[in-house]
Amino acid sequence: MEIERKFLIKHLPEKLEHYSNEEIEQGYLNTTPVLRIRRKDDQYIFTYKSAGLMSRQEIEVPLSKEAYEHLKPKCDGNLITKTRYRIPDASGYTIELDIFHGVFEGLYLAEVEFPSEETALSYCMPDWFLLDVTEDPLFHNSQMSTSNPEIILSAARNKQSSVIDSNHNMLNN
Questions:
Q1: By the 8 A CB rule, do 134 and 110 touch?
Q2: Torsion on CA atoms 107, 27, 69, 110, rounded to nearest 10
Q3: What's the domain range around 87?
Q4: Do 87 and 13 touch, CB atoms closer than 8 A?
Q5: What does the mean pLDDT of the chain come to?
Q6: What distance in Å separates the CA atoms of residue 68 and residue 29, rounded to the nearest whole number?
Q7: How many CB atoms lie within 10 A of CB 96?
Q8: Which residues 6+ apart lie within 8 Å of 73 measured at CB?
Q9: Rounded distance between C-alpha atoms, residue 56 and residue 72, angstroms
Q10: Total count of domains within the chain
Q11: Which stretch of DSSP H or E encloses residue 70?
């Protein structure tokens, strides 16, 4: 079972270069249920994910490079490329910060996995996080693979602006 929350961020954390990272390329053969192929550096993985936003079943199976390359042209929509940084947080969890490239250049999302829904719901996000978008399917990679990239990027900008405006208005009242 995968239990994770997803966040838009305000700004990149300091000293990002000090954290481990990997280059990821992934494509989707299907989105309901999710059937994904992924290359993480030189590792190849086939993933099944059931329906759900915060909690869902996830099964990963290794693929050969040849199988990955065979399946890659069969993927629908946008190929997603990103650099993923693994950042420890003060609560003992690992933040996976995704900096997107290609058609989603400029989008930054953070994910945090949890052992239970209770711990997920009680998580206090760090100050460099902006907004929880776990329940917004638009920011899930499977949805991004079949969406117009400009719609995703525009939605992220609009959410960031509305949170910043809302916080500014609260400070001035």
A1: no
A2: 40
A3: 2-172
A4: yes
A5: 94
A6: 11
A7: 19
A8: none
A9: 24
A10: 1
A11: helix 65-71
